[in-house]
TrEMBL record:
UniProt domain RecA family profile: residue ranges: 69-218
Motif window: RadA KNRFG motif: 255-259
Lineage per the UniProt record: Bacteria, Bacillati, Actinomycetota, Actinomycetes, Micrococcales
InterPro entries: AAA+_ATPase, DNA_repair_RadA, P-loop_NTPase, RecA_ATP-bd, Ribosomal_Su5_D2-typ_SF, Ribsml_uS5_D2-typ_fold_subgr, Rubredoxin_2
Location of region: Lon-protease-like: 354-443
Coiled-coil stretches: none
Full protein name: DNA repair protein RadA
SUPFAM superfamilies, A to Z: P-loop containing nucleoside triphosphate hydrolases, Ribosomal protein S5 domain 2-like
Gene: radA
CDD domains linked to this entry: RadA_SMS_N (cd01121)
Record keywords: ATP-binding, DNA damage, DNA repair, DNA-binding, Hydrolase, Metal-binding, Nucleotide-binding, Stress response, Zinc, Zinc-finger
List of residues binding ATP: G98, E99, P100, G101, V102, G103, K104, S105
Annotated SMART domains: AAA (SM00382)
């Protein structure tokens, strides 16, 4: 009987995101639940000792490293410069992500036009639109400039060739998920392709000391599409968000190696393009403050900014066994908790009423410091007594009906005084009942 031959061990398959291994290919990683991230792993190789090569550049003491080559350059968009920490650092790679249609391409085209108008040479790589389509948007937004170069390419080698030929001062790639490399297997947008494209563009940015702006797609749950290593490769990760029903847009820094990550840039979309809003205070207030019941103003923190936001509430009596709870711009579970606290500690019973809570301007409130404004708006709508128009309220409400201290109280109070509100109600009060008496008691 012939002896059976032993088959060489298969390297198996490995997840490009988390490193999970399996003996056979699967479409979804069992560890990180990522789709399309499982790839064939390379066979194990023996240990290789790195050879020592002669040094061409000696290590420099950190105090002697020159800073002239990393001076920030403004983009021309003041709100974007605020988020980046003052401008773009040469040689940095910035990733701007956001949902489809939110205005990423419009914002970067405006940045390209501002930089080109200052005399710099800008290369705009459009991997999703034709040159004619980008030209139409540029004419509509006034972004035409003789030093703004446009190229519609999806091959990484051609993109690198365009950078060699144009020798730009700024490179914009729209988007990184649609550019692919012939040297790497897989489809455009796959983990391997995105990793190779991002790594190549990062290497070019560091070698040439040229900033690179990348547009990134997001998945349906809001995460940046592609491997997680993409966020590690780049220097700055910004997220562009906004409701399509409103012209307001926000840019937030999720990661920033050169500046803070608690700044927020505010923009307004229009038919002529996108423009920064240096003082968005009046965008979230209506004209009915102090005259209509069910309205209350709070100071919400957006990064380092304290922005006044008006909360509106409507209470309607119903005979249905399950009253409706409809919210817009606030957390529904938070409103449900505040309704229970109002009934238990505020003397406001809304168990037989439909409740509607919304914010003005489409802004979304997520921090606990806006609890008091929601509660007082509900109390005002129930009693039909307007809240005083000269006060703004801030405070987190506990399940015991106590008003807890809030963060950045001094900054909120300073902004309230600047906008003409005489009192910032909340930090000096102890309980919710005290706040109701101070704000919506019959006068």
């Amino acid at each position: 009987m012939p002896a059976s031959r032993s088959r060489p061990a298969s390297p198996g398959f490995r997840c490009a995101e988390c490193g999970w291994r399996t003996a056979k290919w699967v479409g979804r990683c069992a560890e990180c639940q990522g789709w399309g991230t499982v790839q064939e792993a390379e066979a194990a190789v023996g240990r290789v000792q790195a050879a020592v090569v002669p040094l061409t550049r000696r290590a420099t003491p950190i105090g002697e490293v020159p800073l002239d080559s990393v001076a920030r350059r403004p983009t021309g968009e003041g709100e974007l410069d605020r988020v980046l920490g003052g401008g773009v650092v040469p040689g940095s790679v910035i990733l701007l992500s956001g949902e489809p249609g939110v205005g990423k391409s419009t914002l970067l085209l405006a940045v390209a036009a501002h930089v080109a108008a200052a005399g710099a040479r800008v290369l705009y790589i459009s991997a999703e639109e034709s040159p004619g389509q980008v030209r139409l948007r540029a004419e509509r937004t006034g972004a035409l400039s003789p030093t703004l170069y446009l190229s519609a390419e999806t091959d990484l080698a051609v993109v690198l060739g365009q950078i060699d030929q144009v020798e730009p001062d700024l490179v914009i790639v729209d988007s990184v998920q649609t550019v692919s490399s012939a040297e790497t297997t897989g489809f455009a947008g796959g983990p391997g392709q995105v990793r190779e494209v991002a790594a190549s563009l990062t290497r070019v940015a560091k070698e040439r000391n040229v900033p690179v702006l990348l547009v990134g797609h997001v998945t349906k749950d809001g995460q940046i599409a592609g491997p997680r290593v993409l966020e590690h490769l780049v220097d700055v990760v910004c997220h562009f968000e906004g409701d399509r029903g409103t012209p307001l847009r926000f840019v937030r820094a999720i990661k920033n190696r050169f500046g803070p990550t608690d700044e927020v840039g505010c923009f307004e979309m229009s038919g002529e393009g996108i423009a920064g809003v240096a003082d968005p205070s009046g965008l979230f207030l209506s004209r009915a403050i102090g005259t209509e019941a069910g309205t209350c103003v709070t100071l919400a923190l957006e990064g380092r900014r304290a922005i006044p936001v008006e909360v509106q509430a409507l209470v309607v009596k119903t005979s249905a066994p399950s009253p409706r709870r409809v919210v817009n711009g606030v957390d529904s579970s938070r409103v449900a908790m505040l309704l229970a606290v109002l009934q238990r500690h505020g003397g406001v019973d809304l168990s037989q009423h439909d409740v509607y809570v919304s914010t003005v301007g489409g802004v979304r409130l997520t921090e606990p410091a806006t609890d008091l404004a929601i509660a007082l708006a509900l109390g005002s709508a129930t009693t039909q007594v307007p809240i005083r128009g000269d006060i703004a309220v801030c405070g987190e409400i506990s399940l015991a009906g106590e008003i807890r201290p809030i963060v950045q109280a001094a900054r909120r109070e300073s902004e309230a005084k600047r906008l003409g509100f005489g009192t910032l109600l909340g930090p000096d009060l102890a309980t919710l009942r005290d706040a109701i008496i101070a704000a919506i008691a019959p006068r």
